Amino acid sequence: MRIAISSGHGKYISGAVGPSPWGLNEHKEAVKVVNRLFDLLNASGVGTVKFEDTTSKTQNENLKTIVNWHNRQTRDLDISIHFNCYQSTDKPMGTECLYVTQQKLSADVAAGIASASGLINRGAKKRTDLYFLNNTAKPAILVEVCFVDSKADVNIYNTKFEQICGAISQAVGGGQAPAGTKPTIRKGDYGPYVKELQLDLNEQLEGCNLVADSDFGSQTDQATKMYQYSRGLSVDGICGPNTWAALDAEAPPIPPPEAMLSPDDIAAITQIAQESSIYRYSWKDRGVAPPGYTIGMALAFAITHLQLGGDVSWAVQMAKANTHNSDKDALSWYAGKFDDLGMNNDQSGPDTLRHLWVLMLGLGMRESSGRHCEGRDQSASNVSSDTAEAGLFQQSWNSSNSTPEMPKEMNFFDQDQTSCFLQAFKQGVSCSSSEWSCYGSGTGYHFQELCKSCPTYAAQSCASGLRTIRQHWGPINRYEAEVKSAADDMFKQVQDYLDEPEVA
User: Which residue in 414, 412, 231, 453 sits closest to 312, CA to CA?
Assistant: First the structure.
């Protein structure tokens, strides 16, 4: 592909000029943009030639000079760079791209500039009255970068010059924008950079199958978080310089934390659970738990306790002190019941983590009667991938919006099935094909599958959610999940077993 690009107007035909002292001179800024695009496009392998009219003294002469230069070039696409004007204002006005035949390309250019910079996207506009578009012999677009007389636009342009040029380069040249020019994008954004992210994630993130629709929605947000965790990046769902750099370098995944329970550990913890008084406790309105439920929860707690000792981020967040935010934190909401049993949660650490799991042991019985394969509530209409409930704690994937830890946990258990303890949890449980059925597609569908097939993941996901979105669980809201001292005794024995120093 070869591109011919010119700056609108000329040395003696300035075009629009914004108010002093902050307004822009259209031609001078167009030259800057053209020069930068010339460098970016050639650096990315797109042969590009550029032109500035430095001779014309009249508008008609200027238009003919520019078009004649374009028509003398060997090229596939003609581009003219301009800046808009209307009236002096502090308000934002935006960017647009004009065309006669190139509607899609113009829309991509406008969307790319808007996404990269924050300028309002005025979109692609068909114009049949412009000399440049009507007289160039090849497909052509005319870019109106922003308004020279909008103070808001000018501020954005001056701050985001590199990102704007990078967006135009990517849209017209295809492929990836050069390093350092890509914008920071996040949920709600739209444009070619989002499509590039989606394609990169599909290629580099195992099991990712996003629709590359240029729309940064919930599935792209969750896939970005999973990628960030898998590469040891800050997990926020925002694709900024560090995430772009990792994607461009095709950074390999970092190893997940190792499985930490030996066969002897599993046998010892199983015995602790079976000999505890909570093992045969008859839960209110639910009866005695399946044999594997209490054992499985003891093993899942053990893994989490060891992760806390290793400063694994999701375990640290589970074990943080009572936040005193009862709207979000189940430990705050249940503070009175914990206080009645002498379970203080004012200090971050293993005791608070243990008390959280005491609450979860009661919640799992209330939500699923301790059945790991429990399907969604058939009386509810939540059947989308993000809202369908699944597993021990009847949790749905939309709860993950409350914390970045859930995608991290998902990535861990995708790579380490040895810590799922399905064989323990399934004791005494018979699962029907309908219970195994999941709904929707994408990450939410995978969440439902993983909650049922990897009960430890379901437990850790619930633990993270209880600290950030406790209203997700009706039994918690109604104080129906039982908190029992016997459960605390069992988990404390597991904790003491794990913390006991090895004898040489």
Answer: 412
